[in-house]
Amino acid sequence: MAYSGVSKDLLRGGVNRARILDLLSREPGLDRTTLAVRMALTVAAVSRIVSELIEAGLVVEGAAIAKKGVRGPRRTQLKLNPSGGRLVGISILPFNASVQLSDLCGDEVVRTPLHFSNIADADRVLDECTAAACDLIAEDTSGVPVLGAVVALAGYFDSGGHVMVDAPYLGWSNVDVLAGLTDRLPWPVDVENSSRAIILSEARYGAIAGCQNAFIVRAAQNLGSAVLTGSRILAGHDNTAGQIGHLPAEGGHLPCICGKSGCLNTVASGRSVLRRIGRAHPISTDAITLPQEEANLREALASDRAEITAAISDAGKALGQHLAPLLKFLMPEKLLLTGQLGRDKRYSRALCAELERSASKVEIVIGHDTVHSASAAARLAFQRFVAVPQFDIAALTATKQKRAVR
Ligand SMILES: [Zn+2]
Over the stretch 246-291, which tens digit does the pLDDT of each residue have? Predict the structure, then answer.
């Protein structure tokens, strides 16, 4: 993260401000009195912070709250000001990579697809995605400042969260991604694994909002996953925990993209479906094979041919068989199933049937099409750079005042 050297006094003052921003991001419309009750602060203390947030343009007042026969001062709804700042989300995936500009509420302003010339070349990918992000900002004529960026990648970082140590889908290893991005972008920037970015965003704002214990499986060409436990990502000692795609699968013997054989990916993913129907290419991350495989999977999912339906159902069943003991062990409240294969009814039905058979109590939520990792990354930028005690609100207010004078 880019913040350092912030004084303790500034941090103390920022804690309550960060909490108010966080509460308003999840529950737009709260008023000063409700915030004071929630935070165990006086209304005067909350009002002081809210005035500061309004002055900085981060919060705006909405409608007055109607009161029936209740005396007391007028109460006004508060919400984040969409124009209070821009957030940048970038997703670096083998498929559907994109860069998104969001408003302060996390809603999309513009999103543009990224097509990398060679996804296995980390330097070039970082050049291309950061240039695309800077272009988007240059085209944004609003003059609203960028407050932070998060880049979500299909890979795992070291325990320091900077260096990508394991990214079989991208073909990267030991790349200091955070340093590379910090050198290339003029805003505070952080990185996150893409499945983790999505579960963090969905548990805060989306399909599983409010859920503190959840498991996400993104079934596409391969399987991506992450585990949320007590609202925190299950990271393990080396920060690579929560991956199911490379667990040994019963009956698995075929080669996996990670270089081993017999991983769950080889029996429960989109690639395993393509292999069954004779439409898979040899394993590769090159710029020609990847789009072809993606097109083949899309075509297969659109077909109702019996052999394809059987392959998809068997993949869903295989995921269910391997997921069942993990769910019993971790006891998440919800399983969020997403990705182009995860959203296929034949796959999800077979998975559900298998989990039912194992008497799993987990609630299965199917992620809709809008769950996008660039959008999730932009929302994460709000959590990592704006709703934090270190956020330099004085600098933001000064910048906006300078602009207003001009
Ligand atoms: Zn593997």
Answer: 999 988 888 898 889 999 999 999 999 999 999 887 776 666 677 7
Q: In terms of C-beta distances under 8 Å and separation of at least 24 residues, what long-range contacts does 287-290 make, across chains too?
A: 287/116, 287/117, 287/118, 287/119, 290/94, 290/95, 290/119
Q: Which structure tokens are listed for 306?
A: 């019996």
Compute, in angstroms, the gap from residue 256 CA to the centroid of ligand 1. Answer: 5
Ligand 1 centroid from CA 312, angstroms: 19
- Ligand 1 centre and the CA of 59: distance in Å? 46
Distance from Cα 267 to the centre of ligand 1, integer Å: 11
Place domain 210-366 in its CATH homologous superfamily.
Answer: ATPase, nucleotide binding domain (3.30.420.40)
**What is the Å distance from ligand 1's center to 396 Cα?**
46
Ligand 1 centre to CA of 227 (Å) is 18
With helix as H, strand as E and coil as C, how does 313-338 read? Answer: HHHHHHHHHHHHHHHHHHCCCEEEEE
CA 248–ligand 1 middle distance (angstroms): 8
Q: What is the location of CATH 3.30.420.40 in the chain?
A: 85-200+372-405, 210-366
User: Angle at which helices 306-330 and 345-357 pack, to 10 degrees?
Assistant: 40
67 contact partners, CB below 8 Å, separation of at least 6:
75
Task: Enter the tokens of residue 154.
Answer: 């299909």
Residue 260 CA to ligand 1 center (angstroms) comes to 5
**Residues 239, 161: contact at Cβ < 8 Å?**
yes
Contact 14, 60 (CB under 8 A): no
For the domain bounded by 8-82, which CATH number is listed?
A: 1.10.10.10
CB atoms within 10 A of CB 186: 11
pLDDT in tens, 86-114: 999 999 988 789 999 999 999 999 999 99
**How much is the pTM?**
0.91
Distance from the alpha carbon of residue 201 to the mean position of ligand 1, in angstroms: 26
CA of 270 relative to ligand 1 center, distance in Å: 14
Say which CATH topology domain 85-200+372-405 has. Nucleotidyltransferase; domain 5 (3.30.420)
Of 247, 245, 230, 145, which is closest to residue 194 (Cα–Cα)?
245
Q: CA-based angle 293:295:301, to the nearest 5?
A: 100
